[in-house]
Sequence to fold (138 residues):
Amino acid sequence: MLTSSLAFAQLKKDGTPDMRYKANQQMYGSSTYSTPSYNYGTTNTDVRYQSGYIKSNGTYVDGHYKTNSNDTNWDNFSTTPNTNPYTGSTGTKAKDYSSGAYNYGQGQTIQTGPKGGQYYINSNGNKTYVPKRSGNGW
Fold:
């Protein structure tokens, strides 16, 4: 009989780890956990937990918190200079319609999808989304 013991964080209603579970105690290193006290600034506070998953190329992506989709990336954890309150990391992606948005997909034909997202088709034939840019340049 083959047994697998993948540990996924058990969360309380407020999204913080439930420290009654041994796996959470091991992951977070103590029996107490406090909600991160980072400054959200302009970061979207409407977040959800993305469970871990396996990509089509076989790579496992750990579970993580992410902002819920809206019409902009200005308030995403991954957008500069926002801070992810769960990891403390600073975003690196350019804001929509900023001059830095033009550094993504250089030399590619940028297309706009039915919901307004902008992307190009990469060498694997897949969509690669880029920060939104205006049609007329700067």
Q: What stands out?
A: The chain has a mean pLDDT of 78. The chain has three domains: 1-35, 38-93, 96-138. The longest strand covers residues 47-50. Residues 38-93 form one domain.
